[in-house]
Amino acid sequence: MYAESKIYNGLRWYRTGKLNEGLDRMIFGNVRTETMNQGGL
Fold first, then answer.
1. CB of 41 within 8 A of CB of 34?
2. Is the pTM of this model over 0.70?
3. CB distance 37 to 31 below 8 Å
């Protein structure tokens, strides 16, 4: 895991049901298969 991924400690993807769009863009903007990764989460 350490060699092939980033580790994010304590980030809130959602707060009170609302998506943190900046965090979402940061994570999925750095992967080659954005749609496949979003479906896995």
1. no
2. no
3. yes
